Amino acid sequence: MAGGGRRQKYHKKPVELDGVRNEINVTPLVDVMLVLLIIMMVIGPLLARGKDVPLPKTRNHLEPKDNHEPIVAIDQYGKIFVDKTEVPEGPGQIAEIQDLVQREWAELKATNKKLSGAATVDRSGENRVLIKVSPEISYGKVYPIIMALHEMNAVAIDLGTEELKE
Fold it and tell me: How far apart are CA 89 and CA 80, in angstroms?
């Protein structure tokens, strides 16, 4: 008699499923969204070009596409950057800026040359420069840089601004 009870304990009836579940399992969705959020938080700052500088605010603001031109930035402390490379102050500062911009142009031209087999190659960034200057900086600090870029035969010198939100 005792043996029969034991057998019953080990041989259970198969579990019956109660039909289709109409609930969404959100755990995998949350996992994927958190991974994507972390990826965007890590990669986001790496995608920004040039030194982050507070820009003057303007009403008539255009949002042109990124032409991959070199970016010369002057922050609120007067430090000058070409892309994210700080240019040390001194007598050779303008020559160093010209050299860095020239290298950026050469890299852009080489990239465009590699892509020349593609259907459309955007060459609008070649020999152009974007200048981002903090509003606290006087024009006297910016003028020598503009003139140095002009001497390098820059096709266009764009000034970075930020749209005035009303």
Answer: 8
